[in-house]
């Protein structure tokens, strides 16, 4: 069977073009045909994973597992709110992802997993968290399924939130609203083509692929660093545009993932612009949760220290999430250090008024420095420096 | 009311479609002049797996294409490319071949040359070691198989239907080709007309045609990136001193230089090669091919496809029958009697189909025609140069 990896081939675009035609025609008339959307959700899973039956089986087992956890936890939560059960549920929800990430080091596990398992896990964990908070009180299985296995974003995000998704699903756009969605969606898809298949491709082929960059000299690694950072951005931002664009055509406004990240003025700014749906997820469900609990339980007096520990945990988990490989862990630690340093410097500067803010030269310098700090982190991430350790 | 600008998106689609669907003739015409000249002795595999440059070359009367395999990469000063540069006879050899390019690879390639092949003079070098019981195997065919050429064969009816059917059937015997869904569907339809349902065929045709057009676009672009397919050490410069020498003199000189490079071992294999790869473990090669025989081989069938194609196009082809290294094959456990079967069969097949054969099998048991276990030596090339010159002048 032919494989249809999302957005990886022209064939895929032709396929979704044909399959979305009924959705678009009905959408333009201000309607939604839920049965077809359900059918499409199932069909796309089969088409995306069908060429690798093992993946399809893994996915189905995984979905049943997560839906059972969500449904089961909701039932328990309505009776009583117990922390150990909540933590157990989170652990069980993370377990498949953990095993798959472990398979990078333990090849015996490599039969596990499927494309996009981490993004699907994020959605499920988010639901469990919101059930605990009481933000989600009822669910329907079909909707949870459509949310968790939402095919436009199944392979690499963006990571949507259940409440937001639910809101879009419950509001059927009028004809005029859908026309706007259609236009925005198509526009995004075309920007995706420009980013991923023109700029990203050219950078990959002629910059990263240049024989001049093959040696391990400082200059060639330096040039590789810029090239890789550009490639990473254009490839992933292009992909995100496809995913968001196709979501729009289905009437779901999946969140944005990038907002001119290379123009960030500091590290905090950067994480508000780069892979936003991921960094916001981490901010809300790791950093904030930790800080909130630590303050509430009075683990430490120094609030700044609590914040720094929160940041460290946040980025360490992010590093491990990328994979249990040294380069990703170092990447995580590096970002934690960069973030904390940046934060400290800002506080120090505020107190002593060393450098004025809102001066265009200072801004330009800040952008330049931040840009290099970011690019260096991607160099670590790329594995190009692996020969060092 | 917001204005929607769909214009740029439509334009983008049109631009991409017009580039991808550009007709073959325009792609061919866009290849800059001078590219064919550059490609003639480059031995870049992209040329063999493409079509555009070869079609352009065949339209140009000044080229004599030589089809073969790995021996073409031994570009010493007696190699046709070098010899006919210093001793021009009105043609420039255009080399098409690398390791593993058996008759079927050449058949597929020549089937995609359109009308340009008609009545053309060409040279084809056959290697007897192809004609084993197994014939062409995936390990050799896969890297030399061209999807683009196969699609061309499916979409352009420049080969008569009976032959097209035979070629398609032969290709379908290879599982790596069968696993390409669209291509296999088209091949099945060509091999067994009517065996594929109309909707399946229509879908495969549509998808296949797009793939095919992307491949021809790649083919066009590869004309700008011609790189040598040989190693630097394999190529010598043309030697102007050869220009005025008689054939007898050339043969004597080349023999001397082959002898000095191969006389350190009883098999007359290049000293450097022998010392590096064979000397230490020579015992392990004793009889290592003793089961090999050449009386039956799918390769004879593949050669027949090639001959049928050339006949249909009225091509004037010179076939070159190259000997084994007799001494080495004796040691490897293949007797002279068995080797003679290959020579006889090849000669019979080529001649009975009405083609010329330059038969050098008489050098089987004599040294110096072959410089290792299978590749043509400087002396071997002189004999072949002479045969090519006679063939070119006479026809």
UniProtKB/TrEMBL annotation, chain A:
InterPro entries: Ac/AlaTfrase_AlgI/DltB, DltB, MB_O-acyltransferase, MBOAT_fam. It is a multi-pass membrane protein. Its EC number is 2.3.1.-. Pathway: Cell wall biogenesis; lipoteichoic acid biosynthesis. It is found in: Cell membrane. NCBIfam families: LTA_dltB. Belongs to the membrane-bound acyltransferase family. This is Teichoic acid D-alanyltransferase. It comes from Sporolactobacillus spathodeae. The lineage of its organism: Bacteria, Bacillati, Bacillota, Bacilli, Bacillales.
Automatic annotation (TrEMBL), chain B:
The keyword Ribosomal protein does not apply. SUPFAM superfamilies: SGNH hydrolase. Keywords: Cell membrane, Membrane. The keyword Membrane applies. It comes from the Bacteria. Pathway: Cell wall biogenesis; lipoteichoic acid biosynthesis. InterPro entries: DltD, LTA_DltD. This is Protein DltD.
């Amino acid at each position: 069977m032919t494989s249809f990896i999302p957005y990886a081939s022209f064939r895929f675009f032709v396929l979704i073009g044909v399959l979305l035609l009924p959705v678009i025609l009905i959408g333009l008339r201000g309607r939604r045909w839920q049965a077809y959307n359900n059918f499409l959700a199932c069909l796309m899973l089969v088409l995306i994973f069908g060429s690798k039956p093992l993946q399809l089986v893994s996915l189905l087992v995984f979905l049943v597992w997560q839906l059972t956890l969500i449904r089961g936890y909701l039932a328990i939560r309505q009776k009583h709110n117990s922390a150990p059960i909540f933590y157990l549920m989170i652990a069980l929800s993370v377990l498949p992802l953990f095993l798959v990430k472990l398979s990078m080091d333990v090849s015996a596990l490599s039969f596990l997993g499927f494309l996009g398992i981490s993004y699907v896990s994020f959605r499920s964990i988010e639901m469990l968290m919101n059930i605990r908070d009481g933000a989600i009180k009822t669910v329907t299985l079909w909707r949870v399924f459509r949310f968790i296995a939402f095919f436009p974003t199944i392979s690499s995000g963006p990571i949507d939130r259940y409440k937001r998704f639910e809101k879009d699903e419950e509001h059927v756009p009028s004809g005029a609203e859908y026309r706007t969605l259609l236009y925005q969606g198509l526009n995004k898809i075309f920007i995706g083509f420009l980013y991923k298949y023109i700029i990203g491709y050219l950078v990959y082929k002629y910059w990263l692929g240049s024989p001049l960059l093959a040696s391990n000299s400082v200059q060639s690694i330096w040039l590789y660093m810029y090239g890789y950072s550009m490639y990473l951005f254009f490839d992933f931002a292009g992909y995100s545009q496809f995913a968001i664009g196709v979501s729009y055509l289905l009437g779901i406004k999946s969140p944005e993932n990038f907002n001119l990240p290379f123009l960030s003025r500091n590290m905090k700014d950067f994480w508000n612009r780069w892979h936003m749906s991921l960094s916001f997820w981490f901010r809300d469900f790791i950093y904030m949760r930790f800080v909130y609990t630590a303050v509430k339980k009075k683990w430490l007096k120094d609030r700044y220290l609590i914040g720094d520990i929160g940041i460290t945990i946040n980025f360490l988990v992010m590093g491990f999430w990328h994979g249990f490989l040294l380069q990703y862990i170092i990447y995580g630690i590096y970002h934690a250090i960069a973030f904390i340093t940046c934060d400290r410097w800002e506080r120090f500067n505020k107190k002593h008024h060393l450098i004025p803010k809102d001066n265009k030269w200072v801004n330009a310098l800040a952008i330049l420095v931040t840009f290099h700090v970011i690019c260096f982190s991607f160099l670590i991430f790329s594995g190009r420096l692996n020969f060092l350790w | 009311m917001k204005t929607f600008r769909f214009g740029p998106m439509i334009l983008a689609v049109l631009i991409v479609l017009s580039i991808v669907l550009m007709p073959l003739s325009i792609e061919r015409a866009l290849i800059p002049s001078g590219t064919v000249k550059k490609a003639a002795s480059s031995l870049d595999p992209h040329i063999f797996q493409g079509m555009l440059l070869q079609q352009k070359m065949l339209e140009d009367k000044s080229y004599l294409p030589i089809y073969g395999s790995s021996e073409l990469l031994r570009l010493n000063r007696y190699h046709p490319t070098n010899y006919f540069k210093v001793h021009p006879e009105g043609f420039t050899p255009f080399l098409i071949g690398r390791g593993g390019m058996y008759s079927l690879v050449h058949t597929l390639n020549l089937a995609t040359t359109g009308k340009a092949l008609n009545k053309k003079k060409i040279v084809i070098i056959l290697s007897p070691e192809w004609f084993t019981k197994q014939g062409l195997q995936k390990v050799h065919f896969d890297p030399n198989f061209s999807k683009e050429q196969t699609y061309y064969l499916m979409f352009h009816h420049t080969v008569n239907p009976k032959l097209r059917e035979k070629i398609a059937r032969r290709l379908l015997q290879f599982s790596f080709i069968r696993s390409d869904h669209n291509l296999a569907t088209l091949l099945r339809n060509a091999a067994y007309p009517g065996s594929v349902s109309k909707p399946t065929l229509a879908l495969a045709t549509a998808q296949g045609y797009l793939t095919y057009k992307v491949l021809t676009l790649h083919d066009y672009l590869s004309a700008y990136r011609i790189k040598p397919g040989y190693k630097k050490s394999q190529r010598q410069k043309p030697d102007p001193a050869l220009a005025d020498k008689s054939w007898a003199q050339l043969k004597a000189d080349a023999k001397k230089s082959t002898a000095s490079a191969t006389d350190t071992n009883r098999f007359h294999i290049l000293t450097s090669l022998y010392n590096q790869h064979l000397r230490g473990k020579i015992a392990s090669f004793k009889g290592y091919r003793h089961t090999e025989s050449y009386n039956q081989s799918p390769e004879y069938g593949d050669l027949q496809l090639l001959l049928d194609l050339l006949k249909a196009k009225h091509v004037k082809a010179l076939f070159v029958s190259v000997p084994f290294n007799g001494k080495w094959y004796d040691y490897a456990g293949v007797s002279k009697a068995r080797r003679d079967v290959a020579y006889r069969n090849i000669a019979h097949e080529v001649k009975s189909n009405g083609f010329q054969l330059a038969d050098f099998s008489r050098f089987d048991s004599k040294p110096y025609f072959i410089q290792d276990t299978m590749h043509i030596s400087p002396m071997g090339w002189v004999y072949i140069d002479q045969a090519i010159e006679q063939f070119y002048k006479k026809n």
